[in-house]
Amino acid sequence: MKIQEVSKKFELTADTLRYYERIGLLPHIGRNESGIREYSEEDCAAIDFIKCMRSAGVSIESLLEYVTLFKEGDKTRAARKAILMEEREKLQDKMEIMEATMDRLNWKIENYYKWVDDNGAELKKQHNCAELEAAARQEQKRAAGPKKRAPKKTTSSK
Amino acid sequence: MKIQEVSKKFELTADTLRYYERIGLLPHIGRNESGIREYSEEDCAAIDFIKCMRSAGVSIESLLEYVTLFKEGDKTRAARKAILMEEREKLQDKMEIMEATMDRLNWKIENYYKWVDDNGAELKKQHNCAELEAAARQEQKRAAGPKKRAPKKTTSSK
DNA sequence: AGTTGACTTAGAGTGGACTCCAGTTGCTAC
DNA sequence: GTAGCAACTGGAGTCCACTCTAAGTCAACT
């Protein structure tokens, strides 16, 4: 398979594929007589694995460690397994954090924002959510108060 | 609360807190007579919310959108709700991806790496995992084979 | 023979999210 | 009163993971 096909198949740009190869995340891909990459089934399997891990947030660094061990052969199996287990732990932790955030988001949507109608006007006032609302109210007070209105430099240099 | 306390409480560096304020993610924090930040309860609630969202991977851009609407008052409730719902969607999607990755990792650990003993030697050979193994084997063949390494630039002019 | 378009390379540039730095001010302790 | 330390400011630097550019090669088509 040529780079464009692989790119489509895995939804990774050709640049990204070349980048992965360059940093050693993918093995050196074979070239044909005119120097064009020809991805084998095995290369694709590797890409599939890497893509899966990356999309879950596994760092390139960890993946590199893993594939580096791979190249060293069977004697590194235990170390490789350890890496996978470590990454599994990390993923597990992240998922727990995300679940907590989901709960919070759900609470906010279902409780705090429940009285919002379709066309964007609010139907009732609410008064039991601290978080940003209170801070925002305070901010409004501050802004309305003394001239103290710091220049609002948004989004650094552009 | 002074910045150092807040920093400890939420495990965010003072730099990060100042950064968040600078870009408008946090409201302008009140200062005492000598210009030192004094974080209110409301500020802390906002920080707590932001930290929670950030640690789940919600982008600063989205959070900024949200707090910007907040400053515009009640008429933006519907829009704010929409943002939260969108972020909930994104989180949900991410979690699904992560779950799939977890499954894959679990499979690999439990099947592919099951015959690794404590001290790092492998006990048995395995032969039914494509992925990187095959690619690695291929790579080893390539390395052992022809000269490989040299780029074939014949007429090179830099 | 010339043009198109996919490919090649090394290397530079980008965007997001911090993180650090230099210089200054202000509080507390000795 | 001066040393030490925490805080302040604007701006520069860093890290990660790409992403883009320039200059070139090659096969196919007109």
If you had to describe this structure to a student in words, what would you say it looks like?
The structure is a homodimer of 158-residue chains. With 158 residues, chain A is mostly helical. Among the domains of chain A are: 1-55, Multidrug-efflux Transporter Regulator, Chain: A, Domain 2 (Orthogonal Bundle), CATH 1.10.1660.10; 112-144, no CATH class. Chain A is 59% helix and 0% strand. Chain A is built from 6 helices and no strands. The first copy, chain A, has helices at 3-10, 14-22, 41-55, 60-71, 77-112, 131-144. In chain A, helix 4 runs antiparallel to helix 5. Chain A is flat, with a radius of gyration of 25 Å. The model of chain A is unreliable at 118-129 and 145-158 (pLDDT under 50). At the A-B interface, helix 3, helix 4, helix 5 and helix 6 of A face helix 3, helix 4, helix 5 and helix 6 of B. Chain B binds a DNA duplex (30 and 30 nucleotides) through helix 2.
Short structural description:
The structure is a homodimer of 158-residue chains. With 158 residues, chain A is mostly helical.
Give the SSE layout.
2 copies of one chain form a homodimer.
Chain A: H1 3-10, H2 14-22, H3 41-55, H4 60-71, H5 77-112, H6 131-144
Chain B binds a DNA duplex (30 and 30 nucleotides) through helix 2.
Keywords, separated by commas or semicolons:
homodimer; about 160 residues; mainly alpha; Multidrug-efflux Transporter Regulator, Chain: A, Domain 2; 6 helices; about 0% strand; disordered C terminus; DNA-binding
